């Protein structure tokens, strides 16, 4: 979907986030407050995706070099919190997925 000329996607968003911005902002987030919430939600989604890439690269478990203890990768917690923030903001703005748009769930 092409970017709306009046509401360009904020700099620094991933391609995925930019596509969501372009799909949502012109129709459902015209006010400055809603655009700010959409931006924050999309930055949370990008953060979650970055953490997922780190976990995919390093593995879900890490070993402490000093003690040899095995721990859950710290990025797992950050990813979970970022996805929760995205979902909370998206739901607060009533931007849930539409069956008409996505077909049957």
Structure write-up:
By secondary structure, the chain is mostly helical. It has one domain. The chain is 61% helix and 6% strand. It has 4 helices and 2 strands. Strands 1-2 form a two-stranded antiparallel ribbon. Helix 1 packs antiparallel against helix 2 and helix 2 packs antiparallel against helix 3 (74-92). The longest helix has 27 residues, at 32-58. It is elongated, with a radius of gyration of 17 Å. It starts with 14 loop residues before the first helix and ends with a helix.
Q: In total, how many domains does the architecture comprise?
A: 1
Mean pLDDT: 90
Largest sheet: 2 strands, antiparallel
Order of helices and strands: HHEEHH
Question: Percentage of helical residues?
Answer: 55-70%
Q: Which consecutive residue ranges, at least 5 long each, have pLDDT under 50?
A: none
Specify Rg, calculated over alpha carbons.
Answer: 17 Å
Global structural class: mainly alpha
Total count of strands = 2
> Count of helices?
4
- Physical arrangement of strands within the biggest beta sheet: 1-2
The coarse silhouette is elongated
